[in-house]
Design brief:
The chain contains ten helices and 48 strands. The protein is globular and about 95 Å long. It is mainly beta and 911 residues long. Helices cover 9% and strands 53% of the residues. The strands form seven sheets. The protein has a 29-stranded antiparallel sheet that branches.
């Protein structure tokens, strides 16, 4: 299968290269109009880019896909920075349902469907640029900060800086720009790159613009149909000086994810008394995840521009995603049977035959009874119910004033707040007397339980042991107030075009407030059959097609949500209290000032800028520790906890320069250099101390003394706009990382509620690494072919390595996108294939987690029945490709997931 995939990718590259040679040889073959001159950018973002000054009186005006491609290329061409652009029409034409989908088709941009903690889901969530981790990128909305929240509980506790794009449907923005170089007036924070989402403005649209889209959504694994609707209305007065825009959306999606998970690996120095050092999985689970996402929100904008000298815009965005989910996992309890039943010659031994391959325990069996005739416990099940949501809202006031022809003053003030919350979590954990055996095979493992009743609905099966119930409430607010002021003065010289200065202030707070519960039933029933799975059983099992296409595993019985809540209401009910060990707060204030000179020649043969940005960061972190000097934060979960507060500050001086040379009328040569920085994630600074009692792993919390990741960024590019709607470009990049944040794992002896006598846990925590490099090349080709057909293709090679030769998270060496389109007055259709090679997504349960090569085919179709009404159909993951994760060696699995295929059908009305 791997060989087939490699051959398929090579064949695709060969076909693309052949087509490129033919089209470059005769670029005018498919053209219906002369090459359009690129319009000069506004506000000094570039002089006229040396476009061919031809008579355009006979140009054919195009719309739809071709118009959006040309608009994107014009913006890219006129940017002083190296960039990639996608316009609103592009978003509407792509088979894209959130902003990450659209970004993922740009050169050098990769999409991520989930964190290392969460694994991959059926919707793109974050993006990486040129193989850098998503945490090293910065996301802006109209050039300013945007707060975010996470819906998944482990992402809430890990509190990073990457933006969750699943909050934003593609209809909410008008243009996306990815800046791969930097300049002094650009907000700091993006080592890999900066993503700017531009919202729509009413004066940019025709008066009384109206659009309404309604679709039905269907996922073939969840097997449910859900509605999605979005609409926009924009008005402006007859003079075009004042406008109002309103937009809203409501979208439902049903998700189901089947997967086999290997939750953590532990190394045993003297396995089975043989003296061998062997690594074995802690838990092998058959995971059944289901979720309903309801995304709703809208935008509003007021714009006033009485003349060319003054403009003020007030806009706001609100989006919320309700993301209640249930995660069920019936697991082979390998860590327990190795720890209790794997010493040959002892009375508790139950270990039979086993196989060790390259240091891994790839197969093993344990009998139902130990040497003394006592049963062993080889299977455990978690049924976890979570009511969760994430939200973001922004209000922003921006103004521009030109008191003279040379002087431009601008500023903005705003507030943004995001929140990720798990309003309630309640888990029911039970286990069985049973033997267990497993054998790794392909991308998963076969698992069997000798001695366990085969009918999951039988009384003998349901009458198992109760282990524990846990959960609580998490609220993680993320909020920022920001102010910016800029001034630019223009000159008429042949070298110096303008001087721009400015400053920015932010006041940011990120918190995690965890309220856990204690239940008296844990003490009464744990380790007994007083209650069990049968107590909360209402006849439900996993679906008959569970794990089809992944591994063979029979359906199993599942707990009922209402019955779990009813049982937890007995014995005094759940007693909620503050859980200090899993809570933290980070307050961060920044002050930035910059100065930048824009340069260029009178004839437009070259342009650029040079500048410097100075940034001061003031940190105040608050953590809770059981070893604090003063026990001022005690609760029923920690009788000795107190606060630990650390204050520190630092400066960053960030010089930058960009140069664009018009070598020929349609050939641009670019070069740039900049020093960049990305601050540590909030949880990395003051994160929660959390452990998994089952997997015997944990997170050590934050390190408030972490330094930012700092790097020098170099770019060299050539962009050839050789025909209308066409581009061939090559970009060379080099990222010299002075330092970066990595993780270290140590063994610590801890006493917990489920381990009152203590146990050894593998604990992972953040530290500053030695740095590294990321170097590579990007190739981008866009070409209309003939008769409405066209092709867009791009490829990125990124080789990122740590200074010690280690791995840098998020780096895929190979990425490519191929999009074929066809459009006429009746039909508009696209098929887009996206591929990224393997990459390490992070550390999960003290184990490195890699995502294997992954490619997906999406498609869209629009049929224009009239000028104002169209039918639409969209599809994602048409080949139903699965997500495979491994722990370093591709033959040692970490997880194997199936999210199914997703389809939309509906219609659009626009005036």
């Amino acid at each position: 299968m791997v060989t087939f995939q490699a051959k398929k990718h090579r064949a695709m590259f060969a076909c693309t290269a052949s087509a490129l040679a033919l089209t470059m040889a005769a670029p005018a073959f498919a053209q219906t109009a002369p090459v359009a001159a690129a319009a000069p950018a506004d506000g000094g973002s570039g002089q006229t880019a040396g476009a061919d000054p031809q008579d355009q009186s006979n140009d054919i005006v195009v719309s739809g896909i071709r118009a959006s491609i040309q608009a994107s290329l014009d913006t890219k061409r006129n940017n002083d920075m190296l960039s990639e652009v996608v316009t609103a029409q592009d978003i509407g034409k792509f088979p894209d349902k959130n902003v990450a989908d659209s970004l993922g088709r740009l050169t050098g941009v990769n999409v991520v469907t989930g964190s290392a903690n969460a694994g991959g889901f059926g919707e793109n969530q974050s993006v990486s640029i040129r193989g850098t981790d998503p945490t090293l990128n910065l996301t802006l909305l109209d050039g300013h900060s945007v707060a975010t929240g996470d819906w998944f509980v482990l992402d809430q506790t890990s509190g990073g800086r990457s933006f969750d794009f699943s909050l934003l449907p593609s209809e909410i923005v008008g243009k996306l720009e990815v800046f791969k170089s930097s300049e002094a007036d650009l907000v700091e924070g993006g080592i890999g790159g900066t993503i700017n989402l531009s919202s729509r403005k009413p004066l940019d649209l025709p008066a009384n613009s109206f659009s309404l889209t309604a679709q039905a959504n269907y996922n073939d694994l969840a097997d449910k149909v859900k509605p999605q609707v979005s609409g926009l209305y924009s008005w402006k007065n007859q003079d075009g000086t004042f406008g109002i825009l309103l937009a809203g959306f409501y979208q439902e999606r049903e998700f189901r994810r089947d997967g086999q998970e290997f939750l953590g690996y532990t190394t045993y120095n003297n396995f089975a008394g043989t003296g061998q050092t062997v690594t074995a999985p802690n838990l092998i689970g058959a995971a059944y995840f289901s979720q309903k996402r309801v995304r709703k929100g809208g935008t509003a904008a007021l714009q006033y521009k009485p003349n060319d000298q003054f403009e003020v815009t007030l806009n706001g965005i609100y989006t919320r995603m309700d993301a209640n989910n249930v995660n069920r996992n019936s697991m082979a309890w390998i860590s327990r049977v190795i720890g209790n039943n794997s010493t040959p010659g002892s009375p508790t031994n139950a270990l039979g035959q086993y196989t060790v391959t390259n240091g891994y325990l790839t197969a093993a069996s344990w009998s139902q009874l130990d040497a003394s005739g006592n049963p062993i416990q080889g299977r455990v099940q978690d049924d976890i119910f979570r009511d969760a949501y994430s939200s973001t809202w922004v209000i922003n006031l921006e103004t521009t004033w030109k008191p003279t022809d040379r002087l431009t003053l601008s500023g903005e003030v705003g507030y943004t707040k995001g929140e990720g919350a798990t309003k309630d979590t309640y888990a029911w954990e039970t286990y069985w007397d049973t033997g267990v055996n497993y054998a790794l095979a392909g991308k998963g493992a076969t698992v069997n339980y000798p001695g366990l009743p085969t009918d999951p609905k039988s009384a003998a099966y349901l009458n198992n042991y109760y282990s524990w119930s846990w959960g609580g409430r998490i609220v993680s607010p993320d909020k920022e107030t920001y102010v910016r002021a800029d001034a630019e003065y223009k000159f008429d010289g042949d070298f110096l075009k303008s001087i721009k200065i400015g400053g920015r202030y932010t006041d940011h707070t990120r918190e995690l407030n965890y309220t856990a519960y204690a239940w008296a039933g844990n003490g009464l029933y744990s380790g007994t059959k007083g209650v069990g799975l049968g107590t909360v059983y209402a006849g439900g099992t996993t679906p008959d097609n569970f794990l089809d296409g992944l591994v063979d595993f029979p359906p199993y019985s599942i707990a009922d949500k209402d019955k779990v809540l009813a049982e937890l209401a007995t014995n005094g009910g759940r007693q909620f209290a503050f859980y200090p060990q899993a809570s933290f707060s980070v307050k961060e204030k920044t002050e930035a000032v910059y100065a930048m000179a824009k340069l260029g020649s009178q004839d437009g043969s070259w342009r650029g800028n040079i500048g410097v940005r100075a940034v001061h960061t003031d940190l105040n972190t608050l953590q809770y520790s059981p070893n604090a000097l003063v026990a001022n934060a005690t609760s029923i979960f920690c009788g000795t906890c107190g606060t630990v507060e650390v204050k520190r500050s630092y400066w960053d001086i960030l010089p930058s320069a960009n140069l664009t040379f018009n070598a020929m009328p349609n050939l641009l040569l670019r070069a740039s250099v900049a020093k960049t920085m990305t601050r540590p994630g909030y949880a990395q600074l003051a994160g929660a101390f959390t452990v998994s009692d089952l997997a015997l792993t944990g997170n050590a919390g934050g390190n408030p003394y972490l330094d930012p990741t700092r790097a020098w960024q170099f770019n060299l590019a050539a962009e050839y706009y050789y025909a209308k709607e066409a581009l061939f470009s090559v970009n060379l990049f080099y990222l010299d990382i002075d330092s970066y944040i990595t993780s270290t794992t140590t063994t610590r002896f801890l006493i917990t509620q489920q381990h009152p006598a203590g146990a050894n846990f593998l604990i992972t925590g953040p530290v500053n690494g030695r740095g590294g490099t990321n170097k590579g090349v990007e190739v981008n080709w866009q070409q209309p072919i003939y008769g409405g057909f066209g092709l867009m293709a791009n490829y990125t090679y990124a080789d990122a390595k740590a200074a010690d030769g280690g791995v840098i998270d998020g780096n895929s060496k190979h990425t490519f996108n191929v999009t074929a389109y066809y459009e006429n007055s009746l039909i508009s259709t696209r098929f887009a294939y996206t591929f990224r090679s393997k990459f390490r997504s992070g550390i999960d349960r003290s184990t490195p987690m890699w995502q294997a090569d992954f490619g997906t085919l999406d498609g869209s179709l629009t049929i224009n029945l009239t000028k104002n009404f169209a039918l639409t159909a969209d599809a994602q993951n048409l080949f139903n490709h699965k997500l495979y994760y491994f722990v370093g060696d591709p033959s040692i699995p970490r997880a194997y997931y199936n999210n199914g295929r997703t389809f939309w059908v509906g219609g659009k009305v626009h005036f």
